Amino acid sequence: MSRLVFEYALVRASPRVERGECVNVGVLLYCQATDFLAVATHLDPARVRALDPAADVQGIAEAVSALQRTCDGIGPAADTSLGQRFRWLTAPRSTVVHTGPVHSGLTPDPAGELVRLLDALVR
Q1: Which of 35, 36, 37, 38 is within CB 3.0–4.6 Å of 110 for a Cys-Cys bond?
Q2: Mind listing the pLDDT tens digit of every residue in the chain (123 residues)?
Q3: How far is the C-alpha of 36 from the C-alpha of 83, rounded, in Å?
Q4: Any idea what the Cα angle at residue 121 is, between residues 116 and 123, rounded to 5°?
Q5: CB-count burial class (<10 Å; 0-12, 13-18, 19+) for 118
């Protein structure tokens, strides 16, 4: 089985951006060779509230779900390629929900790799 190049970035929640603390809440993965772009998430309210007891967990959940809509090409992303969506989603920003640096790897199964990364880096 051939191994395919993929790129991924962690999705992070920083309830108090000014403090620079974050908790991983998902993984965004793109594989150009298979036209695969997806996000897998796991939001643990207790971990978010450990950083800020007054965190707007519902607002964070809504922002995380917006990532899914963008991956699916819903809304303004409808007219963009998967690569453009991935680059837009991983562009640096100073918001409560943002992505970390982009990393790359090799995998025979991008969907399976997404689950593996979620289990290893988020859950």
Answers
A1: 36
A2: 799 999 999 999 999 999 999 999 999 999 999 999 999 999 999 999 999 999 999 999 999 999 999 999 999 998 999 999 999 999 998 899 999 999 999 999 999 999 999 999 999
A3: 9
A4: 85
A5: buried
